[in-house]
Design brief:
Layout lengths: L2 E2 L5 E3 L9 E2 L1 E2 L4 E2 L2 E14 L3 E12 L2 H21 L7 E13 L7 E15 L5 H10 L4 E8 L4 H25 L4 E9 L2 E3 L7 E2 L16 E13 L1
Length: 241
């Protein structure tokens, strides 16, 4: 009997939601001259505590003129960047994410839209490796005028070692599953013919809420890192006799 595997992929999630598994898909029998082929897809897993946080924060301002909207935005953005510097964030970890200026309209029936003002937006992406500081940084951003915040999104700074552990676990799981199927079929596992894996792909981060806040004193914010699963999926072809 031949069992063909589904496409193999590798995933990294900032949230622990992917269980380890192995599966096979039955198809038409395939018999080699010296045995039977069995394809197994297995997912290995290891667990890590995230050590990298990413926040997207910015300032949205409105004014009757474009120049005033941009000027007000620049002043508040400078205060936000100063707060980040005071919090110990390095310049290399701050990148402009979005800058926009849009007219605001008033609409009336049977009338062309009328520009009533302008909205300026300037967002930066901030990453830092001390997740315990996330809450304090969020509070400092809001206190200095940031009124648009997404995150934090938690991840691993260097996932390679964790991925290697997950790959080893995936091979062990594939071998155990192959032994199970071989025994059930009255055969034994002779050897591995091929091992394949998909490209490494970081799973999409969970949706992050967008906060719009007034620059006022807020309660202390706490961010808990928790644990994340690192998973690797492989397809192994076995020869059974």
């Amino acid at each position: 009997m031949r069992l063909l595997a589904t496409a193999a992929v590798i995933t990294l999630s900032s949230i622990a939601i992917t269980p380890a598994l192995a599966q096979v898909t039955p198809s038409a029998p395939a018999i080699l001259a010296d045995g039977t082929v069995l394809d197994v897809t297995a997912t290995g897993k290891t667990t890590r505590v995230p050590d990298l946080a990413t926040i997207r924060a910015g300032v949205v301002t409105q004014a009757p003129t474009a120049a005033r909207a941009l000027g007000d935005n620049a002043q508040r953005r400078a205060a936000v960047l100063a707060a980040l510097k005071q919090a110990g964030i390095q310049p290399r970890d701050i990148a402009t994410a979005n800058v926009s200026l849009q007219p605001q309209y008033r609409y009336q029936d049977n009338q062309p839209p009328v520009i009533t003002g302008y909205q300026a937006t300037n967002n930066v992406s901030i990453r830092f490796r001390d997740i315990a500081k996330s809450g304090a940084i969020l509070d400092a951003l809001v206190a200095q005028g940031a009124n648009q915040i997404e995150g934090p999104s938690l991840s691993l700074d260097q996932p390679d070692a964790a991925l290697d552990e997950a790959r080893v676990d995936a091979v062990k799981r594939a071998q155990a599953r192959a032994q199970l199927y071989a025994k059930a079929a009255g055969l034994s596992v002779a050897r591995i013919l091929t091992i394949s894996e998909g490209a490494e792909i970081a799973g999409p981060p969970p949706p992050m809420p967008v906060y719009r806040m007034a620059a006022a004193k807020v309660a202390d914010t706490q961010v808990m890192a928790g644990e994340s699963d690192v998973t690797a999926t492989i397809t192994v072809r076995f020869l059974l006799k």
